[in-house]
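User: I'm putting together notes for a lab meeting next week and I want to include a structural view of one of the chains we've been expressing. I don't have a solved structure, so I'd like a prediction I can at least talk through. The sequence is below, exactly as it appears in our construct file.
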Amino acid sequence: MKKLIWIFLSFFCAYGESTLAENISDKLIVAIVDKKLPTVLYQHVDEPWDMGTYSLKINKLGASNFSSTETHLNLSFPVEAIISGKVEQSLLGAKIVVACNSKVVTKGRLEVEPQLSSSGSKAKVSISIPIPNTNLNCDGLNVPVKSLLEKLVSGNKRGWEKELQTEINNLFQQVGI
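Assistant: Thanks for the context. Below is the predicted structure for the 177-residue chain, given as structure tokens.
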């Protein structure tokens, strides 16, 4: 996430009033995001859940999209969640362990609302990651995991937003904005 800060610095340094400057700024920000944002955005291994354990890796896919309005900076990019795990259940007194996997593609969105002022600028950050209906394929058995992924996002979302917000606000202070 720290590498996203340079995106916003580039925007504020390159921002202009003309349409051409905004288009150039947008293209510059997309180029920086695509070059600097790591491919692996999030990862954990062998995390326990009520049915066994799972591992999750979230990768950035493809090109980013950036747009701006008079009040907001908007960045979106496709992400892929690769889930693998083991469902451990007891059946007739025997412990059964089934390997599972799934791949989900969605679009992560980042919205920044800069509040620029001569006495000290601040930014408010909002992250959204819509989770489509998702199942783990466990040797033909489909186990719904949408709620698990939603819980993961909701549990981490505020921390991710706060971290980005703090970094952008620190950057504003460093460059005197």
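A couple of points you could mention at the meeting. The beta strands are 40-49, 52-60, 65-68, 73-91, 94-115, 122-128, 135-138, 141-144. The CA atoms of residues 3 and 35 lie 10 Å apart.

User: Perfect, that's what I needed.
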